[in-house]
Write a structure and sequence with these properties.
The complex is a heterodimer of chains A (399) and B (472). With 399 residues, chain A is α/β, with parallel strands linked by helices. Helices cover 35% and strands 16% of the residues of chain A. In chain B, helix 1 crosses helix 2 and helix 3 packs across helix 5. The chains are: A alpha/beta (399), B alpha/beta (472). The interface between A and B is large, with 83 and 77 residues.
């Protein structure tokens, strides 16, 4: 199958601890004792960059990981504890040159002003490779870590009775992204003038109050940090249903979705486009990425054996929200191309065991896709927007 | 017999957003691009400095209702830059100024613990306060904090952060791949804090970092600030320019330690210091004068006079005499987001004194602002500066200095190349780093080492109130 008629394929890897399978840390290839060191993360991102991937995402959360969807658990047999994702991304930025860095931030309990300048600064330290993945949390225990608000207890994210609560959290996240984006634009690119004749360092007419007033917060601005190199770093969000699709449609450059086959992919893309159009963003590029959990081996049977072995170690099968792929690089390349034909821009791969499946992606899957002419052979841009085919946007405040 | 020579501590303050920084100099580079920070940090590390220091302000300054445009404006996010600098340095401490008013302890503790992990134990936190509604307009809660509560919130914020850092003891992670036990203790990170400002509980999710807790700095000079430093801080960032003022401050703050059960070596006094270095003392004096004129343009002089007059003085000639009219003491201050203006408690008197001073010396507005402004702390040849710095430290006016160059990012280079070798020759400054962490550089004990005795595994009983925890 030829890919020439399609837009270029994009590939990302989602980094989370030793991998997405809860028993991944038990694999000999994993280095669980190094999880809290810079060298561990630098190694993973270097491997991803070796595979010419568009970007890595880094998971985060404002409480310990848990096997329950809403509450903490008391397990001692899985990885618990993590480092701040923005700081991991920043720590590895000077050690890499091309790959995009997309940390997760939780909108529900943090300040859009702080996050805006943090991601702008990540864009500076990476010279234009920053993105952010925005997440909400309905966990009562995480609210209790901050003590500023309570979140009504939900039964499930898709429970009709909890719709209002969930919609509120996502609406707040949309406002949050709006503030973050306005703050990125609150300095025009040429605001710093260093005019010795008048003694003015900036032209203050090119700095703008954002004067955001919303239901959840008001923010005056301007940012303390000048407009970042990309103008607007890349905003992304994971979405499984209408409410989060709306957030993607309103606020994001990339939505990560979880189709289980090409038909579902087509249907989800259509729903995301509906929300995008409803938000008045028809003309703006918006990538839809399919998330896939991957067990990748040259021999498909070896992949299946690894998966089963991990499930046995964990004492239960690991059920992902995303489609689980178990097989060979050629089979995965087939699936990715099938998704691509269904309107998916790319895939965000979640390695089941990062020590195994990340190198399998970079050293086997990528060459397979390259052989098919479906993936880049060298980095064609030095910013994340550039890799994603997104132009540097005009400043909303520029006259 | 004379006492043994004290070892000097030196730090590098990235040039800030006030008129000390001369952005108009042809050598002045970007204050935002990472390459500037990397150059500055590498210079400091090459010179074996203890740490790099970043200031912070959470709203751009305004004067007369407009964004102040004469100084450097804008800076990057503190945590994010420090994490990136950890990648281009190996030993240098990384000190960030982080506000205790417009942040929450759980998030800040995560960020500092993460920075400490990612830098291999080099994180430090300069705890500052603010209360104003002006800054609050950028945050969810607005101007929620009354002025008189800012230190009480700061103290409780720090105590709470310490409880979070201490909620992991350092031995919880087994990560035993054979037995399948990752955590030794299912309750790792459990905490409960109930107090006036924070009522939070749950599980902290960053395991104990190499330094246990970041090194704590305090920067305020008020009575409350001094007490806060004496009770809580590992180092104090002060502003005492003269030998006499430095000694008085040093004696005062160190004498406060006893009542908190602390010894003088547990709190370092590190004043900010500017310098002008040249081949000879005479050349340095000339250069220093020139720099002060660069720092105070005519426009800047008028704006600085407005700090006292609290009126729009843009119609005045900076090269002419001071205004005859008195300062406006009736209403809100013309300048916002600037702590400095609070120094002028009696503007009418200050204005009268300045008029007299200017008349007696035949000074223009600009002359007066230059002459009453801060002179560089150290002016001279490398020999002179090294001798003076050493004298300050050996006579207990400080334990070292946080140097503030006036040029970004190369303003530290000459000091590193010329002054530091002399201090090393005198045997008062390290020639190699002696340990990996900032605590090693500063000679501070690891918090675990200074808290012997059994630990309470259940943190809910160990951390129950707002008071200081036993740190000794």
């Amino acid at each position: 199958m030829s890919s020439t008629s399609l837009s270029p394929l994009h590939l990302a890897v989602a980094l989370d601890g030793t991998g997405w399978h809860p028993a991944s840390w038990r694999e000999p290839v994993s280095r669980p004792k190094e999880l809290f060191t810079a060298a561990y993360w630098a190694g993973l991102v270097a491997e991803a960059e070796r595979g010419l991937l568009d970007f890595v995402t880094i998971e985060d959360g404002l409480g310990p990981q848990s096997s329950h969807f809403l509450d903490p658990d008391d397990r001692t047999d899985e990885v618990r504890g993590r480092l701040d994702a923005v700081l991991i991304a920043s720590r590895v930025a000077p050690l890499t040159r091309n790959i995009g860095l997309v940390p997760t931030v939780v909108a529900t309990h943090t300040e859009p002003f702080h996050i805006s300048k943090a991601i702008a600064t990540l864009d500076y330290v990476s010279t234009g490779r920053a993105g952010v993945r925005v997440q909400i949390t309905a966990r009562p225990n995480e609210a209790a870590h901050f003590g500023r608000r309570t979140v009504p207890r939900i039964k499930a994210y898709d429970n009709p009775a909890d719709r209002e609560t969930i919609a509120g959290l996502f609406d707040e996240a949309a406002d949050y992204v709006e503030v973050v984006r306005r703050l990125w634009d609150s300095w025009e690119d040429d605001a710093e003038i260093r005019d010795a004749a008048t003694g003015r360092f900036i032209d203050r007419d090119k700095l703008h109050y954002i004067d955001f007033e919303g239901k959840y917060f008001s923010v005056r601005g301007p940012s303390i940090t000048p407009r970042p190199p990309q103008g607007q770093p890349v905003v992304s969000a994971l979405a499984h249903d209408t409410i989060p699709y709306r957030l993607v449609g309103r606020a994001a450059d990339i939505g990560y979705v979880t189709p289980h086959d090409a038909d579902e992919a087509r249907a989800i893309v259509a729903r995301v486009r509906t929300e995008q159009n409803a938000a008045g963003r028809v003309a703006e590029p918006l990538h839809v990425f399919a998330d896939l959990l991957v067990y990748l081996d040259d021999d498909p049977e070896a992949a299946a054996e690894r998966r089963d072995g991990l499930d046995i170690l964990a004492g239960r099968p690991y059920l992902s929200d995303a489609l689980t792929f178990t097989g060979s690089p050629a089979q995965l390349a087939d699936l990715i191309e099938e998704f691509q034909s269904a309107g998916i821009s790319g895939c965000r791969l979640r390695p089941a065991v990062v020590g195994h499946d990340l190198p399998a992606i970079t050293r086997s899957l990528v060459p397979e896709l390259q052989r098919r002419g479906a993936f880049r052979r060298s980095y064609e841009a030095d910013t994340l927007r550039g890799l994603l085919g997104l132009a540097r946007p005009a400043n909303r405040y520029a006259a | 017999m004379s006492k043994p020579l004290k070892q000097i501590h030196l730090a590098a303050h990235f040039p800030g957003v006030n008129n000390t920084t001369v952005w108009s100099d042809p050598a002045a580079g970007s204050h935002i691009e990472f390459s500037s920070f990397a150059h500055f940090a590498r210079t400091a590390e090459r010179a074996k400095f203890d740490f790099l220091f970043l200031a912070e302000g959470l709203r751009l300054r305004e004067q007369g209702g407009k964004i102040y445009d004469l100084d450097v404006v804008g800076r990057p996010d503190t945590f994010t830059v420090l994490a990136a600098l950890a990648a281009v340095t190996e030993h240098l401490g990384l000190t960030g100024t982080i506000n205790s008013t417009f942040n929450e302890p759980y998030e800040v503790a995560r960020q500092f613990a993460s920075l400490d992990h990612l830098s291999g134990g080099r994180a430090a936190w300069n705890v500052v306060t603010s209360w104003d509604a002006f800054t609050g307009e950028n945050f969810r809660r607005g101007g929620f904090l009354p002025q008189e509560e800012r230190y009480s919130r700061a103290k409780e914020f720090l105590a709470t952060a310490h409880e979070l850092f201490d909620s992991w003891h350092g031995d919880e992670i087994l990560a035993d791949q054979d037995t399948g036990q990752f955590l030794r203790d299912a309750k790792a990170g459990a905490f409960v804090h109930t107090g006036q400002h924070f009522d939070i509980h749950g599980r902290f999710n960053v395991p104990r970092s190499p330094q246990g807790r970041p090194v704590i700095f305090q920067a305020g000079d008020s009575e409350e600030g001094r007490e806060f430093a004496a009770s809580e801080a590992d180092a104090i960032f002060s502003r005492h320019a003269t030998l006499e003022a430095g000694r008085a401050f040093y004696t005062d703050v160190k004498s406060r330690l006893t009542k908190y059960g602390r010894t003088p070596d547990q709190l370092l006094i590190l004043p900010a210091a500017t310098f002008t270095l040249a081949d000879t003392d005479a050349e340095a004096e000339e250069l220093a004068k020139e720099v002060r004129r660069q720092q105070v343009s005519g426009a800047t002089a008028l704006r600085h006079l407005e700090f006292v007059w609290n009126r729009d003085l843009s119609g005045y000639d900076p090269d002419g005499p001071l205004p005859d009219i008195d300062p406006d003491v009736s209403g809100d201050h013309i300048s916002q987001g600037r702590a400095q203006v609070r120094m002028y408690r009696d503007p009418i008197t200050t204005a009268r004194e300045w008029r007299e001073l200017a008349a007696a010396n035949n000074w223009s507005i600009r002359d007066l602002v230059i002459e009453t402004g801060n002179r560089q702390n150290f002016i001279g040849s490398a020999e002179t500066i090294a001798r003076t710095v050493n004298e300050f430290v050996q006579t207990d006016a400080s334990d070292g200095f946080i140097l503030v160059p006036h040029i970004t990012p190369t303003g530290l280079d000459a000091f590193a190349d010329q002054v530091v070798p002399i201090l090393q020759e005198k045997g008062v400054f390290r020639t190699e780093y002696e340990g990996p962490t900032l605590r090693h550089h500063l000679g501070l004990a690891h918090p675990d080492g200074s808290t012997p005795g059994p630990r309470t595994p259940d943190a809910t009983s160990a951390h129950s109130d707002t008071g200081r925890k036993d740190r000794h």
